[in-house]
């Protein structure tokens, strides 16, 4: 008994399957995890090492080099990049894409071991390397919090209170605080007094260091029980620190008599954050992996609503980004799009097959969709942008199987067969070809499912959801569709010709008959059209991933190296004031000194620099961004002339960085800068669509170098370290201890405030304590003046080689791929010295890596598809006919993209792959039908005409429902190019299936045709 017949005879089992899909889908939709973007693992860790006092070059040679040497021994490492600044080494370690997220913890442990083993090779002044393996954590619920009128200590209390309470919310993984006011306790000695008394800085520092130290005091035994002795409590107020005593020449003197002690903000904080122009700090909340971010987000909102009653009046909590709101809106939009797609399918089917067929196929489609959601929930596939899009993409493909079965049953029942006989007859002819065609359609996406890189991981749910939905559509097509057809379809009077006797069928049959007669001109015309379309396809703009449809965009601003964080903050105020007057602006979050917490998976924070300013600007909707961005760029470039100003749209998917990037690697920084300058000149000469040319080494920075008078200094017992310590005390100050306030550790800094903005003249007047002479010596006696030197203070390395990158953006509306092609030849024509090399980065590198990874998997996918098509027919000619149609699928794609002006993005490439699967699927069903009709003894030409005519309605309806089902995606920035690719390509592919395939079949089987004619 066939499955289709059994589905009617054993209706209870079929009903259980259908009800299971329906109820399971409802359960799945209620419980499935939801995200904005699919989770892809950021396979990157950061190693930070402090080396105070060292230049960027020293940091690179003495700290970064030995650590990189140890790290590169790991076979899992793909690349090592480093950024070296004065006193700080930052190494970014990227892991090969073949390792998934479950293997990373073990790899990070191995990295820590390598780094720890290399510590012995570091200089004595270097700190302990810190390995940050949570670099990719996403804090998708992101707030800016303002505490006007509160002290800095109270602001910290409020922040810790919120953090502590939100960590108790179910589903919350971590809470990240950023931009809290930084405080220090400053001890400012009176230089005249300590000089007269002969108090050394070491004595002051020692007294402060011991004031609040944590020390062990041992334990005693009493009555057989050990009792721990707690050390005496140290100074726990600023006033107590001021009352510390210092021994001077046998006398005890209060610190208050020698210095002033104040608690205040640090003069140069690491970061300054404002929201809508007012001081703020940010709080990012991350959810636990695999849980529904919508539910977590609403629980966070509820908890914050409760907490606001406990917060002091005046505390303001502003959302910067709420992932759960975005996801919820996307889910609701999906339901609307789903309803629209189902309605479109039902209406089209009702118009061309009648309302009965529309109900049968529409019900099967609905069951397939909800059943897919059920299996997504079981397999832990979250509902996010890609998986939702996959359901819409699959929508048109899902009806193919049901249409073929329903149309076949209707035809047989119209001839007088019972529903059981019709179901068995149709299933026996089509279920195997449909299964093979369905698997081929799935395998068209297998390159994505098997791709191990970030792009493949990002798009994996596309493959998984389409695979689940298409297989389920086949199961329901041979089970639920026959049962529903049994209830809805009517048995006819046996009129065999009525089914295909309408005017449309007659017109198609006559057209095909003419095409068979003029087969050579028809093929020639198709060949010419294909060549023209391939030429036209070369004119289509190329793109990796499109811009996001979130109404956010960024401003990046960098002052020249050496600028202060306060200068950068002042420059950002100019932009904030301008944006206040724009009605399109909902909010502006300002970050000075570094980027925001990673609030989106695709957001990559910039490296911390005091010269870096960053704005996150939210508008009411996407349509407002282009004009606002254009006006802001005009204003920013004209007003902020001291630095580098640029804006950026948020893009979908992995990648990021500058669209155009050329990397030059070599040993000599001077030569590297010369190559970068030459490349920048060549780029500007080759294209007028470039903007914001820059290098990642930034400008050289002016450094003040005292000339140490060795003979004179050593004669009075002053070492280089003593001199450096004196300069540090006179400028930034020396941390002498730590003041503990609850769980906060506030540095105690000894400094004098005699240095102004005069630079070297002020430093000359400083005093240096000589322990040998037990006296203070003027700096002027210890040095032979000062030199100024321009140094590289931001040295980038890649795979252990100094590497400078020339980066550029493209003007608004320009295509990065086209601009890259315009400049590529000129840059590659540069003569590089021996030992130097050029590599391309930017969008070209990201796209090339993604397509290369996809290309590695495609041969296997294609092989499986070819093998299946051969096994279905057991011959070679039929599969060859079908595969000859595939290259022609590009015709409709080229026409569609050129007509709409959309670029061929990575998602469009996926659309082209799916289009190939659809085309092959339709071709298999048509060619299989011709074989079956011929096997019944029908004359060759008539068999081709009859079989093709009988496949007209399934092919046209499948194409029409797919094309119309793509309409909701045209408004989605991420899927628009894919939708156009499928719509244009499938429209042309339908012609190929209905005309080219029969013509090719007619020509390939010329021997059989001639043999039949000879017998006649």
From TrEMBL:
Protein name: Multidrug transporter AcrB
Domain of life: Bacteria
Positions of transmembrane segments: 12-30, 333-352, 359-380, 386-406, 434-452, 458-480, 516-537, 854-873, 955-976, 982-1004
UniProtKB keywords: Membrane, Transmembrane, Transmembrane helix
Organism from which the protein derives: Donghicola eburneus
SUPFAM superfamilies reported in the protein's UniProt record: Multidrug efflux transporter AcrB pore domain, PN1, PN2, PC1 and PC2 subdomains (SSF82693), Multidrug efflux transporter AcrB TolC docking domain, DN and DC subdomains (SSF82714), Multidrug efflux transporter AcrB transmembrane domain (SSF82866)
GO MF term list: xenobiotic transmembrane transporter activity
A GO cellular component entry from the record: plasma membrane
Alphabetized PROSITE patterns for the sequence: PROKAR_LIPOPROTEIN
């Amino acid at each position: 008994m066939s499955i289709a017949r059994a589905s009617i005879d054993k209706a209870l089992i079929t009903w259980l399957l259908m009800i299971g899909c329906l109820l399971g889908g409802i359960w799945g939709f209620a419980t499935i995890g939801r995200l904005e973007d699919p989770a892809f693992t950021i396979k990157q860790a950061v190693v930070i090492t402090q080396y105070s006092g060292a230049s960027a070059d020293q940091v690179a040679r003495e700290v970064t080099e030995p650590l990189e040497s140890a790290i590169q021994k790991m076979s899992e490492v793909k690349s090592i990049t480093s950024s070296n600044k004065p006193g700080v080494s930052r190494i970014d370690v990227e892991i090969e894409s073949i390792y998934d997220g479950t293997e990373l913890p073990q790899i990070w442990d191995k990295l820590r071991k390598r780094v720890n083993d290399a510590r012995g090779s570091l200089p004595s002044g270097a700190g302990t390397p810190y390995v940050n393996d949570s670099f990719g954590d996403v804090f998708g619920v992101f707030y800016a919090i303002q505490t006007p009128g509160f002290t800095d200590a109270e602001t910290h209390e409020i922040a810790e209170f919120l953090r502590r309470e939100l960590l108790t919310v179910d589903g919350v993984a971590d809470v990240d605080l950023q931009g809290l006011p930084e405080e220090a306790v400053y001890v400012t000695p009176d230089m005249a007094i300590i000089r007269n008394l002969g108090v050394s800085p070491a004595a002051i520092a020692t007294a402060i260091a011991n004031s609040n130290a944590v020390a062990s005091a041992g334990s005693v035994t009493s009555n057989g029980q050990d009792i721990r002795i707690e050390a005496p409590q140290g100074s726990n107020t600023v006033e107590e620190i001021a009352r510390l005593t210092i021994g001077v020449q046998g006398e005890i003197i209060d610190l208050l008599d020698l210095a002033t002690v104040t608690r205040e903000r640090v003069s140069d904080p690491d970061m300054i954050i404002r929201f809508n122009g007012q001081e703020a700090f940010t709080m990012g909340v991350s959810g636990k992996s695999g849980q529904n971010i919508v539910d977590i987000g609403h629980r966070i909102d509820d908890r914050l609503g409760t907490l606001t009653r406990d917060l002091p009046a005046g505390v303001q909590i502003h959302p910067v980004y709420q992932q759960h709101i975005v996801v919820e809106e996307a889910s609701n939009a999906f339901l609307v799009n789903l309803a629209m797609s189902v309605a479109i399918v039902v209406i089209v089917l009702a118009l061309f097959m009648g309302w009965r067929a529309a109900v049968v196929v529409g019900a099967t489609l609905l069951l397939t969709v909800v059943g897919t959601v059920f299996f997504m929930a079981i397999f832990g596939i979250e509902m996010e942008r890609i998986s939702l899009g996959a359901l819409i993409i699959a929508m048109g493909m899902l009806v193919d199987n049901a249409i073929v079965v329903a149309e076949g049953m209707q035809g047989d029942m119209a001839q007088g067969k019972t529903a059981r006989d019709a179901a068995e007859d149709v299933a026996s002819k089509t279920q195997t070809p449909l299964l093979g065609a369905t698997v081929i359609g799935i395998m068209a996406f297998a390159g994505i499912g098997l791709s191990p890189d970030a792009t493949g991981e990002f798009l994996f749910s596309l493959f998984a959801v389409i695979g689940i939905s298409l297989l389920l559509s086949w199961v329901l097509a041979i089970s639920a569709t026959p049962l529903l057809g049994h209830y809805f379809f009517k048995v006819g009077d046996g009129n065999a010709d009525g089914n295909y006797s309408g005017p449309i069928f007659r017109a198609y049959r006559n057209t095909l008959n003419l095409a068979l007669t003029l087969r050579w001109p028809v093929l020639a015309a198709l060949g010419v059209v294909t060549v023209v379309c391939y030429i036209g396809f070369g004119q289509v703009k190329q793109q990796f991933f499109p811009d996001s449809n979130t109404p956010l965009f960024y401003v990046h601003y960098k002052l020249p190296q050496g600028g202060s964080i306060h200068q950068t903050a002042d420059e950002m105020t100019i932009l904030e004031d301008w944006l206040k007057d724009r009605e399109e602006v909902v909010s502006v979050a300002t970050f000075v000194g570094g980027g925001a917490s990673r609030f989106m998976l695709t957001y990559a924070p910039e490296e911390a620099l005091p010269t870096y300013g960053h704005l996150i600007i939210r508008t009411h909707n996407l349509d407002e961004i282009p004009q606002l961005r254009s006006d802001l760029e005009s204003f920013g470039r004209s007003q902020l002339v001291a630095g580098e100003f640029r804006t950026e749209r948020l893009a979908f998917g992995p990648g990021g960085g500058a669209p155009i990037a050329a990397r030059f690697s070599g040993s000599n920084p001077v030569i590297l800068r010369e190559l970068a300058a030459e490349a920048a000149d060549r780029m500007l000469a080759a294209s007028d669509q470039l903007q914001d040319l820059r290098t990642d080494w930034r400008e050289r920075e002016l450094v003040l170098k005292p000339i140490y008078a060795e003979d004179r200094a050593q004669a009075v017992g002053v070492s280089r370290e003593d001199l450096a310590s004196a300069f540090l005390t006179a400028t930034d100050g020396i941390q002498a201890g730590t003041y503990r306030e609850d769980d906060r550790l506030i540095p105690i800094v000894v400094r004098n405030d005699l240095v102004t903005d005069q630079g070297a003249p002020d430093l000359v007047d400083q005093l240096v304590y000589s322990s040998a002479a037990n006296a203070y010596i003027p700096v002027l006696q210890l040095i032979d003046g000062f030199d100024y030197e321009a140094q590289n203070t931001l040295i980038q390395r890649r795979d252990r080689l100094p590497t400078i990158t020339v980066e550029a953006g493209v003007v608004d509306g320009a295509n990065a791929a086209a601009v890259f092609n315009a400049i590529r030849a000129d840059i590659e024509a540069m003569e590089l010295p021996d030992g130097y090399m050029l590599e391309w980065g930017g969008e070209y590198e990201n796209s090339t890596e993604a397509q290369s990874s996809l290309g590695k998997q495609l041969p296997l996918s294609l092989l499986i598809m070819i093998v299946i098509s051969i096994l279905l027919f057991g011959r070679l000619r039929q599969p060859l006919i079908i595969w000859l149609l595939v290259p022609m699928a590009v015709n409709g794609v080229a026409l569609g993209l050129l007509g709409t002006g959309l670029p061929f993005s990575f998602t469009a490439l996926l659309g082209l792959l799916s289009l190939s699967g659809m085309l092959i699927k339709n071709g298999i069903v048509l060619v299989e039908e011709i074989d079956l009709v011929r096997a019944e003894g029908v004359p060759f030409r008539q068999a081709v005409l009859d079989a093709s005519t009988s496949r007209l309605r399934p092919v046209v309806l499948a194409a029409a429902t797919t094309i119309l089902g793509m309409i909701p995606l045209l408004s989605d920035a991420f899927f628009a190019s894919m939708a156009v690719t499928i719509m244009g390509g499938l429209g042309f592919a339908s012609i190929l299936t209905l005309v080219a395939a029969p013509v090719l079949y007619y020509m390939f089987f010329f021997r059989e045709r001639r043999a039949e004619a000879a017998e006649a």
